[in-house]
Amino acid sequence: MEKIKQNPIVKKIGFNRVVLVLVLILMYILFCLVTKGGFFGTARIMSALNYAYFLGFLSLGVTFVIATGGIDFSIGPVMFCSALVSGFCLTQYGVPVVLSLIISILIGLLFGLFNGYLVAYWTVPPFIVSMASMNIAKGVASVFTKTQSVSWPQSSEATGWFRNLVKVGDFPVGLVIFIAAAVVCALILNRTKVGRYILCLGSNKEAVRLSGVNVKKWEMLAYVICGTLVGIAAIFYVAAYTTVQPGYGDQYNNEAIAGCVMGGTSMVGGLASISGTVIGVFIISLLQEGILAMGINKNYQLIITGIIVIIAVFADVSARRKKN
């Protein structure tokens, strides 16, 4: 094992990422064999990708928050709130599609500002803030839509052009946009002052404060980035699916965090990997599609996702103990 880790190529790519890619490939092969070749079709792959897009933006966002040592359990409900409110504006009030999509992003941004301000400036524990935001998001969506579900326009309609963000014909446009967004996030996290301070906050917040850095501003910015990406996730959710119902979104919190942590982002902060998050998201999405293809109850996915989170956190804690 040590020889493999010391291999120049493996060291450059990262042992954890190499393992994740192998797991992804093996999962795909396994599902193809178990479903007797029924998993090879383009339809299954496109379905898994549709799931990966919105989940991917959620995971990218929460990566910034977890990197500071925080957490956000409101991302799923906030995504649904953004989709419901903006969709209601589109279908009931005749708001143009472009403006509706902007409203979706702004709602996510506002929740990010709200969470970040309370965590950074009022020093409210992130867990408490995110749980409160989760309930607020559900309440706002239900009140605004009068507890009605919202159906976004189909691609055949004139206002359904936004679905081209996901695919045009059989070409996965969403995959290109998601990878491009991941590259931008990786550059921000690894190549800019913003990313350095966010990671430093997770490593030793007090030391950063004593060095004269405005830690409150940078900590709040992590939540703002997360909220903005959640608003974008809502756009990709409604571009891939049609109907959005109030009161949902909780399950995507765990899946997004699982993809993030599985990819190498430490739950105690200070260490994050955007590329690892991307691979983790694809694993979660493939797992979801594979379970559906096998005809297994989706509740088993929740069990498996929970186990994945526990294993990933245990691996992180063990690695830190060995390092110390």
What this model shows, in words?
This protein has 324 residues and is mostly helical. Helix content is 74%, strand content 1%. It has helices at 2-6, 8-13, 15-34, 42-67, 75-92, 97-120, 126-145, 173-191, 193-210, 215-240, 250-262, 274-293, 299-323, and strands spanning 150-151, 243-244. It has a two-stranded antiparallel ribbon. Helix 4 runs parallel beside helix 9 and helix 11 (250-262) packs across helix 12. The chain is globular, with a radius of gyration of 20 Å. The model has no long low-confidence stretch (mean pLDDT 90).
Write the SSE topology.
Blueprint: H1 2-6, H2 8-13, H3 15-34, H4 42-67, H5 75-92, H6 97-120, H7 126-145, E1 150-151, H8 173-191, H9 193-210, H10 215-240, E2 243-244, H11 250-262, H12 274-293, H13 299-323
Antiparallel strand pairs: 1-2
What number is the mean pLDDT?
90
End-to-end distance:
21 Å
Q: Structural class given helices, strands, pairing?
A: mainly alpha
Strand order of the largest sheet: 1-2
**What multimeric state do the chains show?**
single chain
Order of helices and strands: HHHHHHHEHHHEHHH
